[in-house]
Amino acid sequence: MNEIINKVAQSSLMVFDLEDYYPDDHVIGLDISQWLLEGFILKESEFRTKLKETDWSRFEGKYVSLYCSTDAILPAWTFALVTVHLAPHALKVFHGNEEQTVIEWYQDILNKLDYTDYFQKPVILKGCSKKQVPNQVYTLAIQKLIKIAKSVMFGEACSAVPLFKSK
Known about the structure:
There is one protein chain. With about 170 residues, the chain is of the alpha/beta class. The chain has 2 domains: about 5-25 and about 115-165, no CATH class; about 25-90, no CATH class. The protein has 5 helices and 7 strands; from the N terminus they run αββαβαβαβαββ. Strand 3 (about 65), helix 3 (about 75-85) and strand 4 (about 90-95) form a beta-alpha-beta unit. The radius of gyration is 22 Å and the shape is elongated. The protein starts with 6 loop residues before the first helix and ends with a strand. InterPro entries: DUF2480.
């Protein structure tokens, strides 16, 4: 009987999997409506007291996305004041939803990566993942890969879509 040969494993094809860098528990959302009267009204003295009484240690080493889940009308300083309390603990604080913060996480990671292993090699930007990698992150990654790779495809080795080929 003929032996089945895995030609993909024998090729110089490199896989760039964004899921390898997924932040898992490094990104956390913080809804400030919890410190508003009935979730809508900011009473400054009570708000400041609640911030002082909060245990900020759970945000240690995290990327934190600050948001308000209600339609409260808040002064501009509200999120800045919460950030004053968070900054000594969090790696970074963002005003926005968790997806935006995940994108920021990836931006930082992608900027720090060493891409020399991918130099002048065919690369597959893995597209199937078990985790919710935002589409914007693929846009960030492809910009890094086209600078160094011989070619870039999207998907899996068995069904990759060509995206880029160097000249």
